[in-house]
Amino acid sequence: MSWIDICALDDIPLRGARKLKTALGCVAVFRTSETEVFAAADRCPHKGGPLSEGIVHGQSVTCPLHNWVFDLNTGQAQGEDGQIATYKLRIEGDRVLIDGARLTARSAA
Amino acid sequence: MTQKLVIIGAGMASGRVIEHLVEENAGAYDITLFNAEPRGNYNRIMLSPVLSGDKTYEEIVTHDDDWYDQHGVTCRFGEHVLRIDREMKVVEGQNGHVPYDKLIIATGSAPFIIPVEGNDLPGVITYRDLDDTNAMIDAAKQGGKAVVIGGGLLGLEAAAGLAERGMEVTVLHLMGHLMERQLDEAAAYLLRRDLEKRGITIMTQASTAAILGEDRVEGVMLEDNTGLEADLVVMAVGIRPETRLATDAGLEVARGIEVNAQMQTSDPDIYAVGECVEYDGHLFGLVAPLYDQAKVLAHALMDQPDAFVVKDIATKLKVTGCDLFSAGDFADGEGREDIVFRDPSRGVYKRLVIEDDRLVGAVMYGDTADGNWFFGLIKDGTEIDEMRETLIFGPAFQGGDQADPLSAVAALPRDAEICGCNGVCKGKIVDAIEGGATDLGAVKAQTKASASCGTCTGLVEQLLQVTLGDDFEAPTAQPICGCTDLTHEDVRRLIKSQELKSQAAVWQELGWKTPNGCHVCRPAVNFYLLADWPLEYQDDPQSRFVNERKHANIQKNGTFSVVPRMWGGITNPDELRAIADAADKYDVPTVKVTGGQRIDLLGVKGEDLPAIWADLNKAGLVSGHAYSKGLRTVKTCVGTDHCRFGTQDSTGLGIKLEQALWGSWTPHKVKLAVSGCPRNCAEATCKDVGIVCVDSGYQVGVGGAAGMDVKETERLVDVATEDEAIEWTVAFVQLYRENAKYLDRPYKWLAKVGLDWVKETLADAGERARLVAAFELSQSIYRKDPWAEHAKQAERFQPLADLTLEAAE
């Protein structure tokens, strides 16, 4: 694992998200409660909606385009056949770190 | 390897085949769907309610574009298939070939056109698809006379729909009584009487000799030389299987395309389904057997054993107020006995036909509640000897322990059809209920039962009751969402009475089941708190839909559109230059004038929003709130300033109203318009509030709509001065803010509380003043430009970090 410092916890609004540009495309970084963060692909598998713009509730996010709901723990869509990639995050002090091993891996192209 | 499946025809039968395939074995086939109609599958049997105005086309769509997309179906809609090449195994469409491993022909049927002179005149139409329905709706708008040729199911539904839309309708029927294939004379008489009460003229034994007219239809001439005037002639005399492609391809075709019990044609790789097929000498026109065929065909494609069986079918007429049921065979015959029940004063007639102690046919008119039970007896060949004396009274009278009204439903066999529109049987519904679908909504979602015309809703509810017993709770008002059992109205009331002033207080005190709600309830609760406690409550952007959180409209590709405010539709060269400069600077791909007389900059990147706002702000432009559940626009005409008909300064009033109302949040979007005279160039009569200026003052109308529903405004009040017009408008908007359910437009809210109550409330000068004051108080917080505020936090619109750079190191 190679942890990369991406932001302060307070840079992400409570029950909100920010996005992160990576070699694998945009990743959404969610903050669900005072001290809880999640990261997942920013693209809804249904029609490509930006999940970082969705409403965050419980440990889920609702896609702003057509209301698909994803569990941020597993990336599984609720009641739909779809899943988004999730990435490991951790909080150190007031900083948020993401596991960079997967994110910086580039395709052969 | 994935096999290629090509389907010709997107009708109800093939739609069901695709559903079975994707449900049971998604991905087994790569599906291409041709349809000559430029649209996908809709519930064709619901065209009659569309014609009569009870439903809209959108309500009868069964598979929308998203559905096809989601299930990977390649759609070639609006494209005719020219030929099937069996040797090369390709289908030739107008726009190119598609190879197939398996092919399904589902071309349905074509309406039969009687071969008389004039049958090709404009104004002569058949009744088959949406285009026909729309043509009839358009024709009916002109009023006038319609002649419907054919007194069968389709013809009568067309006649009732046209009469409903205000045409003078005559039905011509060749036979001695209406619907002779489904009804006996007595029932047909009652039907005729009911239709005549609606003003429809029925002529039986009427044979059409010619259709008259020069450039378009003008009348119909009968064999006995009777002449009828007609502005529209609907031909509904029957249908015949559409078999041209199959015949050309050399498949075996009799009246329809011949298939075996697996729906396979004479070519083992080609199947056929629906109204275009012939099986064992039978043709099929009703939906239930089509759905059976679809299931069998899907199973055949998945190599599962199944065989199609011809069953008896029951018929219902979809004309509101004509209760009719017919099943089995009711012809007189040797060894057949009748049981007949009549109650002329109620217009009820029932006839049962019995042969060898078994029920073989049933016709009912006026009271059809027991129809399905009789139908079950016919299908199962049940011996009815013991209940013969009480048989006609239905299941409730068959023995003491069955006196419970639910026993009729309980007694139905598993394969009894409950929902005719979607071909759903009792067994499937009971399985769904036992699997956890414990309310009507869930049963609808899982089985599609009662999801179309809804006449079976009562039966489905009874099934819920029978299956769940004491666990069944009779349907009550719908809760907001799964997070609470409370309705919108309850929550509004409790927020006021318990003085709940934060979201956390709502979740805690009202027992929310989730930690912080969901995307459905949070925006509603946020609005209720903001409307009731404008000074104490802190608006929560995270409980707003992205459009309101970002103050721009999200588009399907994730970009945004930006609409600056143009007060009352007035602008000037400086503003236009600023908008044009912004469009250049931020590479705006589309600049469009909106329906509300504002300019829309479409395709702005999320990161650029704060910068484009700042630029527009510099030119004096503020947010047009085109994204908000709040005041959108006030549309105006030029009024007395320039127009020779204008009676008042409609533009000036529009600007004043927009400046009074802008920035306010409301349960749903609110649109206004002010027209300077009754010519109504600003289209004020289909707005949430629309003011029409007249010589004597101002007519204030409310509750109009021109969206999913189209509604004309209803008059709230006539006032003499501009100030009064503004006062009434503001008071109305505040009353709506204080009372309506989130996401109800004013017209929906008005339908619940009644215009009379609103008029009465607002007529009280004291109450009107209170409402205006309450609105002003709220505006002291919310009448401000969100763009200016948010542009200050530009960093929130940027990505957190860019790890692509890190990776490149």
Automatic annotation (TrEMBL), chain A:
<protein>
    <submittedName>
        <fullName>Nitrite reductase small subunit NirD</fullName>
    </submittedName>
</protein>
<keyword id="KW-0001">2Fe-2S</keyword>
<dbReference type="InterPro" id="IPR017941">
    <property type="entry name" value="Rieske_2Fe-2S"/>
</dbReference>
<dbReference type="GO" id="GO:0008942">
    <property type="term" value="F:nitrite reductase [NAD(P)H] activity"/>
</dbReference>
<keyword id="KW-0479">Metal-binding</keyword>
<keyword id="KW-0560">Oxidoreductase</keyword>
<keyword id="KW-0534">Nitrate assimilation</keyword>
<dbReference type="InterPro" id="IPR036922">
    <property type="entry name" value="Rieske_2Fe-2S_sf"/>
</dbReference>
<keyword id="KW-0408">Iron</keyword>
<dbReference type="GO" id="GO:0042128">
    <property type="term" value="P:nitrate assimilation"/>
</dbReference>
<dbReference type="GO" id="GO:0046872">
    <property type="term" value="F:metal ion binding"/>
</dbReference>
<dbReference type="GO" id="GO:0051537">
    <property type="term" value="F:2 iron, 2 sulfur cluster binding"/>
</dbReference>
<keyword id="KW-0411">Iron-sulfur</keyword>
<feature type="domain" description="Rieske">
    <location>
        <begin position="4"/>
        <end position="98"/>
    </location>
</feature>
<dbReference type="InterPro" id="IPR012748">
    <property type="entry name" value="Rieske-like_NirD"/>
</dbReference>
<dbReference type="Pfam" id="PF00355">
    <property type="entry name" value="Rieske"/>
</dbReference>
Automatic annotation (TrEMBL), chain B:
<keyword id="KW-0285">Flavoprotein</keyword>
<dbReference type="GO" id="GO:0051537">
    <property type="term" value="F:2 iron, 2 sulfur cluster binding"/>
</dbReference>
<keyword id="KW-0534">Nitrate assimilation</keyword>
<dbReference type="InterPro" id="IPR016156">
    <property type="entry name" value="FAD/NAD-linked_Rdtase_dimer_sf"/>
</dbReference>
<dbReference type="GO" id="GO:0046872">
    <property type="term" value="F:metal ion binding"/>
</dbReference>
<dbReference type="InterPro" id="IPR036188">
    <property type="entry name" value="FAD/NAD-bd_sf"/>
</dbReference>
<dbReference type="GO" id="GO:0098809">
    <property type="term" value="F:nitrite reductase activity"/>
</dbReference>
<feature type="domain" description="FAD/NAD(P)-binding">
    <location>
        <begin position="4"/>
        <end position="277"/>
    </location>
</feature>
<protein>
    <submittedName>
        <fullName>NAD(P)/FAD-dependent oxidoreductase</fullName>
    </submittedName>
</protein>
<dbReference type="Pfam" id="PF03460">
    <property type="entry name" value="NIR_SIR_ferr"/>
</dbReference>
<dbReference type="InterPro" id="IPR041854">
    <property type="entry name" value="BFD-like_2Fe2S-bd_dom_sf"/>
</dbReference>
<feature type="domain" description="Nitrite/Sulfite reductase ferredoxin-like">
    <location>
        <begin position="555"/>
        <end position="618"/>
    </location>
</feature>
<dbReference type="InterPro" id="IPR005117">
    <property type="entry name" value="NiRdtase/SiRdtase_haem-b_fer"/>
</dbReference>
<keyword id="KW-0001">2Fe-2S</keyword>
<keyword id="KW-0274">FAD</keyword>
<dbReference type="InterPro" id="IPR012744">
    <property type="entry name" value="Nitri_red_NirB"/>
</dbReference>
<dbReference type="Pfam" id="PF07992">
    <property type="entry name" value="Pyr_redox_2"/>
</dbReference>
<dbReference type="GO" id="GO:0020037">
    <property type="term" value="F:heme binding"/>
</dbReference>
<dbReference type="Pfam" id="PF18267">
    <property type="entry name" value="Rubredoxin_C"/>
</dbReference>
<dbReference type="InterPro" id="IPR017121">
    <property type="entry name" value="Nitrite_Rdtase_lsu"/>
</dbReference>
<dbReference type="GO" id="GO:0050660">
    <property type="term" value="F:flavin adenine dinucleotide binding"/>
</dbReference>
<dbReference type="InterPro" id="IPR052034">
    <property type="entry name" value="NasD-like"/>
</dbReference>
